[in-house]
Amino acid sequence: MKTYMAKPEEIERKWYVVDCEGLVLGRVASQIASVLRGKNKPCYTPNVDCGDYVIAINTDKIVLTGKKLEQKYYRYHTGYIGGLKEIQFKKRMAEDSDKALTRAVKGMLPKNSLGRDMITKLKVFKGAEHNHQAQQPVELKF
């Protein structure tokens, strides 16, 4: 029996839409990352980007469990002395809820050029409207 290895030109991509209203951030991010990688397909190949496009809407209504809304911080360093910056998750959700989901999904993808290509197939919107109706996305339930 031979092992099937998918080629990039053989991949058929579909469009899915995910309504994030009332869903937990980490759980929906892991499901979206799985679809972006293509792990839900029988032709999954680890070294080929065989995933589908995902449109996430209503990211401003995503929830966290426990006290994470007050206790979770995003930290980064500018590179200068004393340059540690912290942003509380509550503030990030109020300003850029779409970036919070994008960062969560990006952390679950491979850390190489393949992962950077996969994250470009994620389209995130704060409200219920999106501008990808022409692709006829199918609703994805988790």
Just give the CATH class of the domain at 13-63 and 97-129: Alpha Beta
Number of helices: 5
The CATH superfamily name of the domain at 13-63 and 97-129 is Ribosomal protein L13
Shape: globular
> Which strands sit side by side, in order, in the main sheet?
5-2-1-6
Q: Can you walk me through this structure?
A:
The protein contains five helices and six strands. The N and C termini lie far apart (34 Å). With 142 residues, the chain is of the alpha/beta class. It is globular and about 55 Å long. 29% of the residues lie in helices and 18% in strands. The longest helix is centred in the N-terminal third of the chain and has 13 residues, at 25-37. The strands form two sheets. It has a four-stranded parallel beta sheet with strand order 5-2-1-6, covered by helices on one side. Strands 3-4 form a two-stranded antiparallel sheet. The protein has a domain at 13-63 and 97-129: Ribosomal Protein L13p, Chain: A (Alpha-Beta Complex), CATH 3.90.1180.10.
Task: Please name the defining characteristics of this protein.
single chain; 142 residues; alpha/beta; 4-stranded parallel sheet; two-stranded antiparallel sheet
What is this structure's SSE topology?
Blueprint: E1 15-19, H1 25-37, E2 53-57, H2 68-71, E3 73-77, E4 84-88, H3 89-95, H4 97-106, H5 113-119, E5 122-124, E6 138-139
Parallel strand pairs: 1-2, 1-6, 2-5
Antiparallel strand pairs: 3-4
Helix pairs in contact: 1-4, 3-4
